[in-house]
Amino acid sequence: MHETPAADDDLLELLDEPEHADADLHRPHDRPWRILIVDDDGDVHKATELAMQGLTVEGQPLVFLHATSAAQARQMLGSEDDLAVVLLDVVMESEDAGLQLVRHIRDELGMSALRIVLRTGQPGYAPEIETVQAYDINDYKTKSELTRTRLYTVLTAAVRSYRQICALEANRRGLEMIVESSTSLSRMRGLSRFAEGVVTQLCALLGILPEGLVCAQVNGETPEEVRIVAAAGQYSGLIDRPLAQVKITTVRERLERCLDEQRNLYENGTCLYFGMGNGRAMAALVDVGRELDELDQQLLRAFCSNIAVGFENVVLYSQLLDQAYNDPLLRLPNRNRFVELLDKNLKDPAGVTLALIDIDDFSDINDAFGHHFGDQVLQAVTHRMSEMLGLNTAMARVGADTFGVLGEHAKVCPDSVQAVFADPFIVAGERLQLSATTGLVRLSESKAVGSELLLDAQIALKRAKQQQRGSSQYFSAAMGSDARERFKLLKGLRAGFEENQLFVVYQPQVDLDSARVIGAEALLRWRTPEDRFIPPDQFIPLAEQSGLIIPIGEFVMRAACAQLRKMQRLGHTDFRMAVNVSMAQFRHPGFIDMLARALHDSGVAGHNIELEITESMAMDDADLVLRVLAGIKRLGFSVAIDDFGTGFSSLSQLRQLQVDRLKIDRAFVQEAQSSSAGSTIAQMVVNLGRGLGLTVIAEGIETEEQRRYLIGLGCHEGQGWLFARPMPAEQLETWMQR
Ligand code: C2E
Ligand code: CA
Ligand code: CA
Question: Is 425 within 8 Å of 381 (Cβ atoms)?
C-alpha cells in the first residue's frame, strides 16, 4: 500500500493557496509601448513627449526613453529589449550618425521587430531610398512635417507594425518549436518521459519557466485511477500520485474538468487536453501566470493536435513494453525484465544469490481446482514471498509456476524459501500445504551473464528436483559445464537432423555355427559437417530427453524398412532387420501408429523386423509395457531384450512379456574368456532363455574363441567385429554377395 507521508501532506497544504494562484492568473495586461527618442536637440524630446501625453495606442499607454546622442542610444539599445519604436534624428554627432545607428540596430543588434522612424531637420540629409528599404525604416519625415496629429499617426502605425511583427515572429518561433517538439516528443519512450517533455515544451512555447504539471488517463481507466505522470517546478512533489489525492483544489478541479469536458481550458489558468479516443487522454495544466492571447491559444491548439500523435505512439509503446516486461497476473516483472535485472546486478555480484523457486505439483492444483484457483494460489505465494523475503529482494515470475528471486546470500537461501512454504496457504477458503523446489546460484560463483545465469539456476533446480521435491540445490561450476556442453550438442543434433547429417548403418547378425547371415541390426550414425562422428551413446540420450528421438526414431525405422525391402528384392527373403527402440518412443502415444505406417509405406511385413528394447525398459511400468508390446505383436514384429544381464529382471515379469529373444550384452561376451563371473552371466542368460523358451543372441563377438565359447553355452546367434562391423547400406549389399 502506498501511504502518503505526513510531511508531504503539510507541504501540499502550503501549496494549496487559491488566492495566490488566482492573483497570478489574473494579472492585467498593462504593458505600455516603449518608445526611444534619439535626438541631440533637447527641445525635440520635450515637445514630443508633451504632444503625445495621455495618448494610447491600441489601448496601451506610451512610455518615452531618451538619448541625446547616437552613442548614448547604442548603450541603451544594448540593454533594452522590448522597445517598440525609435524616433531617430539623422544628423547628430556626425552627418549620418542616425543612419549609422540604424545599421547598428539591424545588422549588429539584429533587432528586426523594432520600428524606426527617421526625423530630420533638413530635407537635404534624406537617406537614399535604398537605405530606407535595406534597413527596414518605417517612416521618414522632416521635423516640420510632423504635427501632433501626424506624429501620432506615424507612431500608431509604427506600434501596430511592431506588434504584428512580434506576433509573426512569435508565431514562427512557436511553430518551429511545435515541429521540433512533436518530433522530439514522438521519440520519447514511456509516458512519464513524454509528459515531462510536454511540460517542458509547453513552457518554452509560452516563454515561461517550467512550472506546471501533467496528468494522464490511459486506457479509459476509471477517473480515480488517473495519475500525475509528470510535473515540474513547485508541483514536482505530485508525481505518481493519483489525481484524486492532489490536495490543491484548483489544480485538481481544473485537470478533472479538462478531462471531463475533453477540451482545452484557458480561463482561470491554462489546461490543455490531449485525447486519442478509446478513453485514453492526457490533460496538462500550465501555470502561465498571465491570460493567454489569441496567438498563444492558436499555438497551443496546434501543439495539442501535433503531439496527440506522439502521445498515441507512446501509449502503444508503453503497452507493448508492459506486456513484454511485466506479468499482469502477479504484477511482477517477467522473465525478460528479470534477465535485464540480472545483467545489471552482475556489475556487483558479490554477496548476491539468484534463486529459482518452483512450486511443486502446481499443475495438479490447476487440474484439480481449475485455473482461476491456480491463479489465486500464485497470488498468495507472491504475497507471502514478498512479505517474507524483504524489501531488498527482487522478485519476478520467470515461468508458469516458477519465481526468480535475487538478493543477499542471507535473505535468499534454502532456509528462507522453506520458511515461506512452512505454513499452509489459505486460498478461496481452502487450506493448502504447498512446497517448492529451489535452485540457487551465488552470482560470484558463476561465469554466466543474464539469461545464462538463469540457465545455471535452472540446472541447479533440475538437480534438486531429481533428488527430491521440496529440496534445494546450489549450482556448481561442474554442473554447468556438463549441462552447457549437452545443450550445445543438442542444438547441433537438432540442426544436424534437419540437415540430413544422420544416417543408418547395418551390422550383420549371423548363425554362429555356419556364419550364415540371418539379418542385421540398424545402428544410427551422426557425422558432422566437420567429418566428426558423434557416438550414439552420447547423442541418443540427449535426443531421448528432448523428445527429438520421436522423429529420429521414425527416421531410423523407415530407413530400416526400406533397406529390408531392398534386401528382400535382392533375394534375401528371410532377412531379419533389428531396430533399436528407446523408452521415450515406447511411451509415445503415436508409437504403434508410426510402426504401422512405416510398414505400410515400405511394403514389408512386421515378422521380418525385430525391435530391440532394453532390459530396463522391459522392467519399467508393467501395464504400459504389456499394452505396447501387445500392439507391437499385433503388427507381427518380434521383440528382443537388449543388453540383457545389465538390469535386474524379475523372472515372473519376464515370463509375462511376449518377447522372442534375449540379447547378451557385449560386456559379458568380452569378459567371457577372462573372468568366471562373466561366464556365469552369459551362461545364466542362455539358461534363462532356454527355460523361458526364448532364443539367445550375443553381441560384441570379436574373437574366434568367444564364438566357440558361446556355441558351447548353447547360444547360436551373434554379431560382432569377428564377422562384420556396422556398415553403410550399399556396403551391406555387396558384403551379402560373398
Ligand atoms: P547397442 O544396441 O547395444 O548396439 C551395439 C553396439 O555395439 C553398437 O554400438 C555396435 O557398433 C557395437 N558393436 C558391435 N559389434 C561390436 C564388437 O565386436 N565390439 C565392440 N566393442 N562393439 C561392437 P553403437 O553403434 O555405438 O551404438 C551404441 C548404442 O547406441 C547402441 O547400443 C544403442 O543402444 C544405441 N543406438 C544406436 N542406434 C540406435 C537407434 O537407431 N535407436 C536407438 N534408440 N538407439 C540406438
Ligand atoms: Ca541394440
Ligand atoms: Ca547392447
Answer: yes
Specify the pTM.
Answer: 0.48
User: Does residue 289 surpass a pLDDT of 80?
Assistant: no
Of all ligands present, the nearest one to the C-alpha of 723 is 1
Q: How confident is the model at residue 319 (pLDDT cuts 50, 70, 90)?
A: low
**Nearest ligand, measured from the Cα of 612:** 2
Q: Which residues line ligand 1 (CB under 6 A)?
A: 507, 522-524, 535-537, 540, 556, 580-582, 612, 642-643, 666, 699-702, 719-721, 726
Residue type, 341: L
Q: Binning pLDDT at 50, 70 and 90, where does residue 175 land?
A: low
Q: What is the pLDDT of residues 353-400, one digit of tens each?
A: 999 999 999 988 988 889 999 999 999 999 999 888 876 778 899 998
Instruction: Give the position, in ligand 1's atom list, of the atom nearest the Cα of 702.
Output: 18
DSSP string computed for 570-581:
TT-TT-EEEEE-
Mutate to test the pocket of ligand 1, among 505, 510, 521, 523 (most ligand atoms within 8 A of CB): 523
Q: Kindly provide the residue ranges of all beta strands, DSSP E only, lying in 317-379, ordered along the sequence.
A: 326-327, 332-333, 352-359
Helix axes 477-498, 536-546, angle to 10 degrees: 90
Q: What is the pLDDT of residue 225?
A: 75
Torsion sign across C-alpha atoms 86, 90, 91, 93 = positive
Pocket probe mutation, ligand 1, options 580, 642, 703, 727, max atoms within 8 Å of Cβ: 580
Chain-centroid distance of CA 453 in Å reads: 17
Query: What value does the mean pLDDT take over residues 669-690?
Result: 74
Distance from C-alpha of 594 to C-alpha of 609, rounded to nearest angstrom: 14
pLDDT, tens only, 418-469: 999 999 999 988 899 999 999 999 988 877 777 788 888 998 999 999 888 8
Which residues fall within 8 angstroms of residue 3, CB to CB, at 6 or more apart? none
Residue 109 exposure: Cα atoms within 13 Å on the Cβ side: 23
Give the cell for residue 140.
Answer: 521618414
Contact between 69 and 92 under an 8 Å Cβ cutoff? The reply is: yes
Q: What's the rounded Cα separation, in Å, for the pair 24 and 442?
A: 60
Which domains are assigned to the chain? 9-174 (3.40.50.2300), 187-326 (3.30.450.40), 332-483 (3.30.70.270), 500-737 (3.20.20.450)
Whole-angstrom distance, CA of residue 713 vs CA of residue 695 = 13
Q: Which of 583, 587, 522 is nearest to 555 (CA)?
A: 522
Residue with the nearest Cα to atom 43 of ligand 1? 580
SS3 231: strand
